[in-house]
Amino acid sequence: MAAPAVAVRAVAWLLLWEAAGFTCSPATTFNNTHFVSGIRATCSEIILRQEVLKDGFHRDLLTKVKFGESIEDLQTCRLLIKQYIPTGLFVDPYELASLRERNITEAVMVLENFNIEAPNYLSKESEVLIYARQDSQCIDCFQAFLPVHYRYHRPHVKDGETFIVVHNPDLLMYCDQEFPVLKCWAQSEVTAPCTLNSKDICQWNNMKYKSVYKNLTLQVPVGLTIHTSLVCSVTLLISILCSTLILVAVFKYGHFSL
């Protein structure tokens, strides 16, 4: 009588375990555990940090990117930062050309036909491609440097300051060889020049990342409308005075021949 009772009990336990979804072979258990741990290990976050250096109307935008884990042969990968420049800022294309010649930064504007002297209310958003460089002090880090400048803003009635929001950039990556870990971060493919001085087009992976700051917010001083009359009057007087001094110097020290 004991044997049949034990058999019935065993069958009942097996049915309960199967209904609960707990039955699996040892090999399946190992493979699933390995898969889950592998995904957790390879899908760590990319961390992006942006900060603005220097004071005044001329700033430096510094971007640092840290990969969540070590990737072998990361030097075979290139990182491209597509930075969106709001209307309150501008990037000088001539300055970028000079910095490229001195090998300080590798950046180029997507469109260069815009007026760098225009105020913010007559300007449009622009885009800059920055080819980031590997950080010599961090094996899994990239960094990029971009000089930006404030545009003039409309004077305000009361508040003597305004704010510029710099949105987070697009992070593009291209590797000469396949890395399984990139599949965790890639969202889509984007076409862009392979290198700064190359006309070849590559398919870059648009990477998802975590930003230390949601967006950068810059505080800009602006003039007050109540000071308009004073500023115009002083400017006019100084212009007349300087013009008079120049004319006096010309007639006093100039040599005229008829």
TrEMBL record:
Principal localisation: endoplasmic reticulum
| Biological process according to GO | GPI anchor biosynthetic process
Query: What are the UniProt keywords, alphabetically?
Result: Endoplasmic reticulum, Glycoprotein, GPI-anchor biosynthesis, Membrane, Signal, Transmembrane, Transmembrane helix
What residue ranges are annotated as transmembrane? 224-251
Q: In which pathway does it act?
A: Glycolipid biosynthesis; glycosylphosphatidylinositol-anchor biosynthesis
Q: Which InterPro entries match?
A: PIG-X/PBN1 (IPR013233), PIGX (IPR040039)
Keyword Membrane annotated: yes
**Localization of this protein:** Endoplasmic reticulum membrane
Q: How does it sit in the membrane?
A: Single-pass membrane protein
Instruction: Tell me which positions the record assigns to the signal sequence.
Output: 1-21
Gene Ontology cellular-component annotations? endoplasmic reticulum membrane
Keyword Glycoprotein appears in the UniProt entry: yes
One Pfam family recorded for the sequence? PIG-X
- What PANTHER family has UniProt attached to this entry? PHOSPHATIDYLINOSITOL-GLYCAN BIOSYNTHESIS CLASS X PROTEIN (PTHR28650:SF1)
Q: Which family does it belong to?
A: Belongs to the PIGX family.
The entry's function note states: Stabilizing subunit of the glycosylphosphatidylinositol-mannosyltransferase I complex which catalyzes the transfer of the first mannose, via an alpha-1,4 bond from a dolichol-phosphate-mannose (Dol-P-Man) to the glucosaminyl acyl phosphatidylinositol (GlcN-(acyl)PI) intermediate to generate alpha-D-Man-(1->4)-alpha-D-GlcN-(1->6)-(1-radyl,2-acyl-sn-glycero-3-phospho)-2-acyl-inositol and participates in the sixth step of the glycosylphosphatidylinositol-anchor biosynthesis. Probably acts by stabilizing the mannosyltransferase PIGM.
Q: What is this protein called?
A: Phosphatidylinositol-glycan biosynthesis class X protein
Species in which this protein is naturally found: Bos indicus x Bos taurus (Hybrid cattle)
